[in-house]
Task: structure prediction
Amino acid sequence: MLNKKTSPVLSYFKRNIGTIIGLLVLIVVVSVATPKFMTQSNMLNLFKANSVNAIISCGMLMAILMGEIDISVGSIVGLSGVVAAYTITNLNFPLFLVIPLTILVGGVVGLVNGFFISYLEVPAFVATLATQCIGRGLTEILTNGVTIRIRNDVYTGLGNSTIGPISITIFYAVAILIFTWFLLNRTRFGYYIYALGGNKVAAQYSGVNVRKFNMLPYVLIGLFSGLGGMIWSARLGSAAAMLGSGFEMDAIAAVVIGGTSMSGGVGTVGGTFIGILIIGVITNGLNLMGINAFWQDVFKGLIIMAAVVFDVMRKRKKN
Amino acid sequence: MKKVLAVSLAASLTLAMGTGAMAEEEKKYTIGFEPYTLTNEYFVAVQDGFMKACEDFGVEAIAYDPQGDPTTQASQVDDMIAAGIDAIVYLPYDSSSCRTVLQTLKDNDVAVVNIDTVVEEGDYDLVDAIIASDNLQLGHLAGEWVAENHPDGANIAIAHLQTAESCIVNVEGFWQGIKDTAADPDAYKEVQVVEGGGDTEVTFSAIRDVLEAHPEVDVIYCINDPSAYGAIQAVEDAGLTGKVDVIGKDGAPTGKHNIKDGKQVQSSAQRPTYMGYQSVVTALAILNGEEVEFNTAIPSYSITAENIDEFDLDAWDSLEEE
Result:
C-alpha cells in the first residue's frame, strides 16, 4: 500500500499533516497558558488519563472503517467494571476467574452486536443503541444504584501499578494500539475491514465472507471495552452504575478528528492516535487552566467540526 | 348436636362480620410514593423509610419508579389518582415544571407532601407540606470542619455538580461555614472549581488534573460521597496521600466506609430513611385534619473519624438517630 521509496515516518507526517499541526498548535497554546502543562508528571498523567480512550478508540476505528458505528462501548465499560466489582466483592470469586470474565463480558456483548448487525442486517447504530440500553440497565440492576467497592489490592493493582514512573495502563494502551495497527495493516482481516467499508457489495463479489468479517470486529470492540472496564474499576477501586457513560463520544471524536471518514474505508491507527491526544490535551489543558468543564465540550465540538470539514474538503479536492 | 353446631357457626359468622365492619370503620388510607428515580441508592433509602411507615401505620402503599423521566412521572401520578390515593409523597423530577401535575392532584383532592426536591415558591399553594434536607446546613457543617481543622487557612478545590440547585446551596453553605467559624476567613482560598458530575470516574479525572495544576491544594470539597471517592483515588494517584483532606456529603455508605478507612475526613449526613418515614407521618396528619408544619428542614449532623463507630456503615441513616 505504501510507496516503498518514501520512509514510513515521512508518509505518516504527510498523511496526517492537518491533525499534527492542530495538535502542535494546541500544545503551544496550552504550554504558553500554563507552565504546569509541559512537566514530566503531567505528561505521564495525560497519557495515563487517555489510555482507556485509546483502547476504545482502536475498536471504534474498526467500526467506523466499516462505515458503521458502535455506541455501546460506554455501557460495556460499565457492565464489565460492575461485573468485576460484583464477582469480587459480592461473590468472592478468585481473580483468575474474575479477570477473564470481566473482559469476556465485553466480548459477549460485542458478539451480540456483531450478530445483529451482520447476520440480521440491523443498522449498527440501532443495534448498538439497543445493547447500550440493555448494558446500562444490567449495570443498574447489579449495583442497585450503590457503588460497589473492590477491596483487593491485586486487582486494583491492575490499574494502579507503575513500571518505573510509567503507569501500567499506558502499557495496555500501547499494546492495543500496536495490535490494532498490525491487524489493520498486516493481516487479511484488516484488509477485509477496509474493503467492507470501501464497498461491501464489491467485497462480497470478490469472495470475502462478508458476514463473518463484519461481525468479528464487534467482538474485538467488545473485548477492548471489557478491558477498559477492568482498568477503570481497578483504578477507582470501585464500580458504580454510571461507570463509562459517554465514553463512546470521546472515542468517536478521537477517530473522526484523526481523519477517519464516517462513510468508511479511510482511516488509520496513527491518525486516531493523534485524535486521542488532541482530545486529551483539550481536557487536560482546560483543567489546568481552570476553565469550566462545560467549555471543554464546546471546544471538543468545534474541533470535531473542523476535522470533518477538513475531511470533506480533502475529498472534494480529490474528485 | 347439629343444632349446636349451626348456632355456633351462625354466631361465629356474625362475629366475623362484626369485626369486619369495625375494621372498615377505621378508614384505611392509600398513599402513593413517586420519586423521580430508584436507580440511585439515596432514593431507595427514602422509599425504605416510606414503606416502613406505611407498614407501621397500616397504610396501603403504592410506589412507582419513573426512572428519571418526567413524562413517565406525570402519567404515573395519573395512574395513582385512578387507583384512588388519598395522599401522595411527591419528589418531582424538576422543581420548576411540575405545576400541572400538582394542579391535577389538587383537582382530585389528593394531599401532597413534597419531599427532597422542593417545588418553586410560586407553587407552594398547591402542596400541603414540604420536607427536605437543609442544604445550607449540610455545606455549613463541612465548612466548620475545615475552619476547625485548618485554623491557619487552606487551599480548597471543589468538585461540583453545577446543574443541581441543591449543590449550589451546599457550596454556599460550605463557604458560609468557614466564614462563621474561622478566625481569618480570608486565609481560605478557592483554588479551582471543577465539574465532577456527582460521579466517581468524572471527578477522578478532573481532580487528577487539578492536582497537577495545584499541588498546594489542602482540602477538596465534593458535593457527594461517590465523587469524594473519585477525589480520594486521584489524591492517591498523584502521590499526595495524607496531604489532602477529602470531604464528601450525604453520609452515604460509600462515604462512611471511606471515613472508617481514614481516606475521607468528613461527610454531612442527609437522612433519606427518616425523610421517607416522616413523609407518611405528615401525610396521615393532614388526612386526619391535624395542623402540620408546612416547611420542615431536616437537620443534618457531621460524620467524622471521631464518631464514625456510632454509625452503621452499610446503611444511610436509622430512624433512631437524632
Notes: The two ends of chain B are 62 Å apart (CA to CA). Chain B touches chain A through 33 residues (CB under 8 Å).
